[in-house]
Amino acid sequence: MSKEYIQEKSKEYKKLKPCFCPAIGEEIHFTADGLHHLKYKKRRPRKHKDVHYRMTLIEYIPYVLEKATVATKELDKGKPRNVLWSLEATVDGKIIKVILRQQGNGKIHFFSVMQKNKKKDIMPLFFVPIAHIRILCEGGACAHRLSYIYIIFSYRASTFYS
Known about the structure:
By secondary structure, this protein is of the alpha+beta class. Helices cover 25% and strands 44% of the residues. It has helices at 3-14, 32-39, 48-56, 61-67, 157-161; strands at residues 19-21, 26-28, 40-41, 44-45, 71-76, 82-91, 94-103, 109-115, 122-136, 142-154. A four-stranded antiparallel sheet has the order 5-6-7-8. A two-stranded antiparallel sheet has the order 1-2. The protein has a two-stranded antiparallel sheet with strand order 3-4.
């Protein structure tokens, strides 16, 4: 996890040429904003480990842009108006997510890349009654209703599905 590796990957990023993304139907550009976002978050340097992790995913970006079939679009109401797209594709058994951004009427450019983490998959396992709640009804009659909450565990999806 050396600085030389990060510099090498930065040079690799700078060599990326604009490519067409069929999911959006537009050409995607690789700008300094995208590289800056891989190294910084809200104008503060990311942790070295996080930068290294994101730099290792640079090689997957063109593949995801070409192979993704669906793009999820989000509008940001700030000024300038930002439009974000999220694309996903499976590469070598990993789900890679790429974020694209368009500021105002500018060109669509790469903004971020990450690997979806299966450890963060959350599934409800069972219900637990927590209380009988007394509800007053019309005419002074009372009714009891049993309330439930989800007990949620975070675990690897592979342990659940195997």
